[in-house]
């Protein structure tokens, strides 16, 4: 695998941004790891960070580069600060950035596939919210999305002042009554996607540790998605809101992704 550490300018955000990009590389003499074929454009996984992290965290806390080598998939890891992958009420347009500008820039700089069936998203905590949001609002662009310990119920965020202060939450989503039932509410978005033909709906992977403080929110979304008939693969088990859990689960996600028609 090749690793590119990239700085670029975002017209949407009006500032310089960073992303790390893992690109498949065919190798024969690398000790301890083999690379997949490196011809053509690669399937791509947009891998999103959590509230307190940045573009570097997946490389620092997991073996994502080594795991991805077995699948011949590129991995794009951007920084989105604390913007919750949302066009903030007061602040940056992080939804427009992650859903439109970033894929355009990344595919212009690297040989990434722009085909829906080869485009995926995953993330942890805030990034799990972002990944599901990409699948639910852009089902024509993403074939499969995965949430690890996702902050899937934005309503509950307003109740947890130990994570974010009310002023910060409202700067992102507005007042709680504004957010409910809108384009940032995953429960509402799931209802809209459920109206699409099954072939036009993305696949969903959801996992959360049973000791995680976000476990109740994940159970609530799971129940909602099942009632709607969405294609949701769920994995629960022992685990907390930490990197030992996410390192294990991102391997599960890569194995689950519908790569090469499987």
What are the SSEs and their pairings?
Elements: E1 2-10, E2 15-23, E3 44-48, H1 57-61, H2 64-69, E4 74-78, H3 94-109, E5 119-124, H4 126-137, E6 144-148, H5 154-157, H6 166-173, H7 176-179, H8 186-193, E7 203-209, H9 215-228, E8 232-237, H10 243-256
Parallel strand pairs: 3-4, 3-5, 5-6, 6-7, 7-8
Antiparallel strand pairs: 1-2, 2-4
Helix pairs in contact: 4-8, 8-9
What do these coordinates show?
An eight-stranded mixed sheet has the order 1-2-4-3-5-6-7-8, with helices on both faces. The chain starts with a strand and ends in a 6-residue tail after the last helix. The relative contact order is 0.14. The chain has 262 residues and is α/β, with parallel strands linked by helices. It is built from ten helices and eight strands. Strand 1 (2-10) and strand 2 form a beta hairpin. It is 35% helix and 20% strand. It has helices spanning 57-61, 64-69, 94-109, 126-137, 154-157, 166-173, 176-179, 186-193, 215-228, 243-256; strands spanning 2-10, 15-23, 44-48, 74-78, 119-124, 144-148, 203-209, 232-237. GO terms for molecular function: acyltransferase activity, transferring groups other than amino-acyl groups. InterPro entries: AB_hydrolase_fold (IPR029058), Esterase-like (IPR000801), Mycobacterial_A85_antigen (IPR050583). This is Esterase.
């Amino acid at each position: 695998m090749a690793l590119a550490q990239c700085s670029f300018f975002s017209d949407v955000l009006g500032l310089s941004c960073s992303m790390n990009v893992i690109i498949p590389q065919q190798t024969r003499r690398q000790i301890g790891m083999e690379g997949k074929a490196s011809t053509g454009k690669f399937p791509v996984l947009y891998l999103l960070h959590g509230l307190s992290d940045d573009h570097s965290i997946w490389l620092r806390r997991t073996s994502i580069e080594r795991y991805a080598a077995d699948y011949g998939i590129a991995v794009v890891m951007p920084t989105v600060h604390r913007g919750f992958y949302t066009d903030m009420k007061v602040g940056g347009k992080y939804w427009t950035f992650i859903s439109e500008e970033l894929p355009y820039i990344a595919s212009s700089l690297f040989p990434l596939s722009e085909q829906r069936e080869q485009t995926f998203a995953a993330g942890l905590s805030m990034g799990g919210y972002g990944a599901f949001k990409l699948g639910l609002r852009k089902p024509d662009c993403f074939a499969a999305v995965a949430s690890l310990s996702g902050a899937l119920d934005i309503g509950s965020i307003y109740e947890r002042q130990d994570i974010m202060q009310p002023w910060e939450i409202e700067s992102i989503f507005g007042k709680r009554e504004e957010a409910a039932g809108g384009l940032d509410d995953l429960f509402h978005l799931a209802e809209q996607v459920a109206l699409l033909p099954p072939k036009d709906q993305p696949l969903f992977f959801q996992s959360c540790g049973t000791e995680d403080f976000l476990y109740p929110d994940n159970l609530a979304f799971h129940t909602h998605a099942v009632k709607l008939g969405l294609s949701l693969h769920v994995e629960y088990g022992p685990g907390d809101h930490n990197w030992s859990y996410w390192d294990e689960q991102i391997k599960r996600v890569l194995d689950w992704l519908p790569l090469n028609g499987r």
